[in-house]
Design the sequence.
């Protein structure tokens, strides 16, 4: 059987996926079904291949291979499921245990496994941890701790192996509470931790440290210090990311620029970096006269140390393992197989950390290598393409084909010109790295020499930045496409696989592929088996196939002048572009309303047909709401334009995220900004108006009876504080909007108080009034002022009598929202309530007749 490690790794990954999903009943049922099928198939195959004495044997070598393949796959699946289930159960226990300590100050004791500087803090990985709150104690395998580092020498020098005691708040890591948010829970689990701590006091209780890891840590710190001295701040940050795996000092704008253009892999230590550095050391040793063994051992020591020093990321360790396999193959005189080495690396990494499987870096790293070693090599042999620029373009295209769904799933946008950018930037990465390495070496004893050495790298970085700026001028350079569904991903993958298989066969027929590849395969099998007959049999069969192919060509009238194999890259690129359309965002049916969990504030997204409406978008408790919640949510839905952004009133807990979109977002555009008419002329609304106009949007002021239409959705303003206009109390002039979509009606109330509620009810008493028409059929109420007791009066609730009420507030807020009195009123009126502080974002979907609702954290997404 060829490449058993690949089959074993595939089964291992499948087993871990089943185990880590968390739905024990479903995954265990699937696994037992797999066991049963394997058992039945095994019994049947055994009887076919090894019949009772006197029986006629019906099996063949192909049958044996198929049986062995199946059992290797099943063995990998069982091992993967067992390892994944054990890790999942351990982390679940630790998560529940840490949840009991939430809000309390704990004392933890443990041993430092890793210490890394961050932005104003020190990140510690504590192992073999004992936590205590009062008389209650718990144990954890690993806890991530963040300690403030002011840089004034207040913290002792910490090295791996030291024992410490830290006081602070210990908390379990929750699932994301909004669509599109980064999944910190899986991120921490990929590091083997289910909880984190924000330390306030730290004391060293044991000063013994691990010399090897401490040396690497000091060496890395020393190299970073040299780079800071010989480079400008921006260049130093990139050099440290590329050479040392330290991205903590990079400006967010620079990191975003690399990511948006599809070249962020330059900032992650991977196989390319190790090939340049480790390969260089290996070749130097060989030039000095050392044999394969000694050169490989010295190179291996350096490569392993480099991988650990740069943070032991999944991509770095994958590269280390594959490099070791390459050198071992060279030492043993064996051929090196990229895919087998990749399978071994996957098994080792996922055995150590099963949740690494869901990390974007892991998927992109393994996807890129499998594209080059698997899909790329397969197409290249089928097209008989020699090494050269055409081969480089084909490999880049194959990488793009494989990683495109991964990039969209994790980042929601696609760098349209990424393949061309990589063709230009990758050849220069060696210059950048060698320039930095030489700069560190010379800068350690000759400062001016170090500055001169990094000059070449500086110009490479300037070229990268110039290239990115030029690409930004091109149309659609970064497409916001949203997160594709699993159906879209499966259709894309199956379609591309079938199409590529078809064009490879066509290309092979044009070149007599059946004969040439058959001969080579036969020879390789002969060498492996050591049987001359295998070569002869394999050659004869495949020669016949080649002759048959040749005859078919003759019968068909000879070779086609414009055969597909003459333009393999162009045809492959066209197929990629065609199936790429499958991943485009699919317009939703009906109306979707998402009340985001923005902390202490309001933010509601509505989507219908091709329109997106944002009602408020701010938070007083989450300063990074726009960057980490609002923008990712819109991107995950494939939204690059907000057609209408409605501001109920100008308090910061309703506009902070919206201001970020208009002032800082490069991917989300606000087309129309709607402001309350009573607030016109106030400073905050002038600021909003100016931000919208600078961003290229239009501004409108909304007054009672005004209406906004977005497809089949109508937003009607019912109230804005009454007459005379209120003073500087912005809550009092909150816009009250009624959303009508066919038979669905929802009321948005901003932060209005009971006085405004009563004023609106008086208008509703007038027969045929606009207020009476809309308030009489409200089904869903967005409760005012985050459930404060200053709103949602009994008379107002009795008049509306909605089927459902929604409250937006921050979990554990200091205002006491929602008010117990208000919740009691809701209970008395028998109105069900859904709260963002309880279950995260609330999602409503309706076709105008029926209504479905649920919490995002419950999985109803």
Sequence:
């Amino acid at each position: 059987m060829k490449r058993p490690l690949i089959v074993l790794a595939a089964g291992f990954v499948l087993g871990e996926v089943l185990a880590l999903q968390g739905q024990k009943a479903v995954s265990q049922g699937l696994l037992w079904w797999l066991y049963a099928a394997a058992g039945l198939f095994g019994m049947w195959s055994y009887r076919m291949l090894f019949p009772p004495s006197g029986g006629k044997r019906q099996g063949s070598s192909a049958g044996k291979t198929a049986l062995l393949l199946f059992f290797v796959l099943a063995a990998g699946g069982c091992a993967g499921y067992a390892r994944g289930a054990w890790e999942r159960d351990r982390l679940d226990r630790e998560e529940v245990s840490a949840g009991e300590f939430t809000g309390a100050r704990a004392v933890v004791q443990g041993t430092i496994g890793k210490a890394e500087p961050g932005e104003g803090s020190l990140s510690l990985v504590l192992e073999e941890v004992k936590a205590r709150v009062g008389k209650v104690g718990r144990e954890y395998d690993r806890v991530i701790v963040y300690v403030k580092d002011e840089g004034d020498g207040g913290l002792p020098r910490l090295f791996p192996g030291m024992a410490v005691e830290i006081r602070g708040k210990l908390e379990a890591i929750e699932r994301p509470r909004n669509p599109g948010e980064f999944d910190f829970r899986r991120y921490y689990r990929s590091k083997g931790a289910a909880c984190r701590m924000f330390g306030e006091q730290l004391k060293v209780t044991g000063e013994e440290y691990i010399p090897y890891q401490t040396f690497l840590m000091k060496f890395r710190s020393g190299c970073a210090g040299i780079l800071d001295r010989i480079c400008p701040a921006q260049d130093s940050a990139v050099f440290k990311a590329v050479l040392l795996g330290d991205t903590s000092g990079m400006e967010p704008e620079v990191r975003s620029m690399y990511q948006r253009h599809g070249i962020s892999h330059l900032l992650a230590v991977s196989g390319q970096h190790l090939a340049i550095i480790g390969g260089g050391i290996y070749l130097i040793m060989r030039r000095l006269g050392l044999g394969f063994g000694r050169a490989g051992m010295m190179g291996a020591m350096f490569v392993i140390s480099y991988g650990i020093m740069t943070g032991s990321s999944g991509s770095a360790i994958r590269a280390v393992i594959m490099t070791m396999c390459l050198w071992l193959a060279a030492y043993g005189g064996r051929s090196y197989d990229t895919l087998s080495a990749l399978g071994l690396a996957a098994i080792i990494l996922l055995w150590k950390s099963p949740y690494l499987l869901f990390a974007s870096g892991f998927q992109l790293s393994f996807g890129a290598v499998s594209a080059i070693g698997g899909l790329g090599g397969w197409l290249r042999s089928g097209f008989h393409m020699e090494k050269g620029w055409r081969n480089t373009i084909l490999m880049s295209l194959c990488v793009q084909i494989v990683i495109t769904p991964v990039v969209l799933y994790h980042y929601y946008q696609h760098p349209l010109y990424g393949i061309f950018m990589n063709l230009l930037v990758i050849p220069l990465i060696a210059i950048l790295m060698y320039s930095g390495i030489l700069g560190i070496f010379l800068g350690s004893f000759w400062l001016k020499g170090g500055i001169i050495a990094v000059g070449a790298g500086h110009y490479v970085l300037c070229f990268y930045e110039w290239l990115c700026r030029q690409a930004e001028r091109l149309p659609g350079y970064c497409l916001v496409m949203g997160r594709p569904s699993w159906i879209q991903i499966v259709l894309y993958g199956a379609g591309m696989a079938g199409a590529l298989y078809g064009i490879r066969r066509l290309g092979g027929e044009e070149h007599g592929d059946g004969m040439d590849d058959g001969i080579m395969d036969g020879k390789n099998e002969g060498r492996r088996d050591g049987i001359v007959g295998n070569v002869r049999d394999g050659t004869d069969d495949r020669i016949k196939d080649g002759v048959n192919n040749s005859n078919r060509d003759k019968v068909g009238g000879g070779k086609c002048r414009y055969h597909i194999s003459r333009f393999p890259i162009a045809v492959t690129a066209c197929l990629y572009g065609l199936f790429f359309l499958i991943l485009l965002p699919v317009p939703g049916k009906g109306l979707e309303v998402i009340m985001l969990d923005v902390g202490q504030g309001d933010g509601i997204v509505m989507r219908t047909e091709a329109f997106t409406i944002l009602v408020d978008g701010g938070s007083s408790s989450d300063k990074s709401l726009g960057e980490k919640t609002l923008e990712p949510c819109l991107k995950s839905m494939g939204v690059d334009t907000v057609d209408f952004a409605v501001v109920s009133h100008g308090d910061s807990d309703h506009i902070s995220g919206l201001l970020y979109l208009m002032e800082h977002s490069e991917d989300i555009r606000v087309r129309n900004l709607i402001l309350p008419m009573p607030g016109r002329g106030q400073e905050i609304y002038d600021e909003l108006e100016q931000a919208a106009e600078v961003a290229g949007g239009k501004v409108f002021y909304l007054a009672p009876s005004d209406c906004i239409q977005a497809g089949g959705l109508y937003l009607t303003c019912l109230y804005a504080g009454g007459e005379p206009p209120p003073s500087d109390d912005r809550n009092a002039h909150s816009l009250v909007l009624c959303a009508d979509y066919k038979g669905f009606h929802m009321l948005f109330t901003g932060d209005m108080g009971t006085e405004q509620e009563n004023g609106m009810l008086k208008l509703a008493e007038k027969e045929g009034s606009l207020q009476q028409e809309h308030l009489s059929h409200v089904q869903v109420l967005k409760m005012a002022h985050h459930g404060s007791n200053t709103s949602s009066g009994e008379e107002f609730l009795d008049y509306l009598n909605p089927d459902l009420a929604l409250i937006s507030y921050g979990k554990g807020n200091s205002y006491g929202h929602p008010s117990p009195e208000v919740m009691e009123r809701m209970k008395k009126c028998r109105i069900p309530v859904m709260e963002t502080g309880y279950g995260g974002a609330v999602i409503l979907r309706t076709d105008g007749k029926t209504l479905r609702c649920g919490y995002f954290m419950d999985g109803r997404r």
Q: What stands out?
A: The chain has a mean pLDDT of 84.
